[in-house]
Structure formats: C-alpha cells, structure tokens
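Reopening this ticket.

The earlier resolution said the output was attached, but the attachment link was broken on my side. Pasting everything inline this time so it's all in one place.
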Amino acid sequence: MEQLTLKAEKRTAGENQTPRKLLKSNRIPGVLYNRKENFCIVIDRNNFEPVFKQAGTSHIFNLLLDNEPKKAFVKDYYIHPVSRQINHLDLYLVNENEPVTISIAVKTVNTPAGVKMGGVLEHFAWQIKVRCLPADIPETVEIDIGHLNIGEDIFVRDIKLKENVTIIDNPDKIIVGVVGATKEDEPKPAEVQAAETAGQPAAETAQKDDAKETKKEDKKEVKKETKKEKK
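Inline output:
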C-alpha cells in the first residue's frame, strides 16, 4: 500500500473547539494517544476520508501533528446514528520500537469445494486482532478456503502467521464456513389453493362452462313453457 499522510492539529479548550462546532465546520474531533502520551486533536474531514478509505483500521499511516511527523493508525471511531458520518476518532500513536495491537483484514482465496456442490459461503469475521512490532504488521491475513466442504468452518485457531506476529483474538471465533443451501419455505394453504385453482385441467374448466350453458338453456325452456300455459 502507498504511504498515506493525514494532517491533524492539537485541539485546545475554547468556545470554537467544542465537538458540535467542529463537526459543523466539517472537522472531526478526536484523541491521539499511547501509553505515554495523550492529545486532543481535530482533523479536516476532507483530508481524513480518503485516507481512512484505504487504511481503515488495519494500516499505519503518516500523521502530521501540527506539521510534526508521527506514525498512527485508527484504533476506533464513532458514527452518528442519524447522519451516519464519523463524529469522533481514536488514533493510536505508534512507537516503532514497541509492539501494537491492531485489527488486520482477512482475505479469502479460492472457491470452496462445498460451494461447487451447492453450498453457500458465509463470512462471520472480516478482521482478526494481532500483536507485533509496527514493522511486522501484515498487509492482510490470507486464508485458502478451497478445501472447505459443506458443514466445515475455519476458526481463528486454524490461522498460522509469522512467528513474530501473535494472534490475540478468540481462538474459537469462526472466520468463514460453508453451509447447505436453505430450503424454500413450504407454501401456505391459501397459496396451495390458488395454485390448485390456477392448475385445473382445461377439460374440467370446459365442463363447468358447459354446465353453465345448460342451466341457461333450461331456464329459457321453463320460461317458454310457462308462457304457453298462460295462453
């Protein structure tokens, strides 16, 4: 991945630095921290969004904090329930000599054998948490799923990474699995009745039409006979 750069400013207390006013001016409030330092920051949304689109929470990027170069990654973010825009950021300040805990994207390769037999592939987790030095962070975690049959899963414990990268996620968490195709729901009684009506043989329909015509003719004959008797 190309080197990404995000600009940020330290945020000071003041009437114009409240989260609401910052958001109205298209800037995102946040915090930048590690075990030793902690800063309140503000980031321009137009600068942040293209960086976040590529880096997500899985990649370290260059951070210019008041033009001072640093390294960081998005540790967490918060989305407004109505606007669906990010309204707060947690950035982790990276020390190149200290291990970090970071979520890495999972990428699957090959088509499962079970899918070729009619099964359906289901993704249960798109990331796993690892701990390592910043220089050892993998780009992605690639999983070969070609051998999976229907009813089989791949768990976190099945993933093998380099010795200097430790997986700290729940080993029993399922990453992907292949399930059997879901059966269609049985039709309701009303649907069955409608289907039966729609599927009546043409001969049966013709018989009903003939019966109607016969009744009409019988009524006509009765009327004629009644008139004759009156005369």
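Reporter confirms the inline version is readable. The chain is about 25% helix and 35% strand. The radius of gyration is 34 Å.
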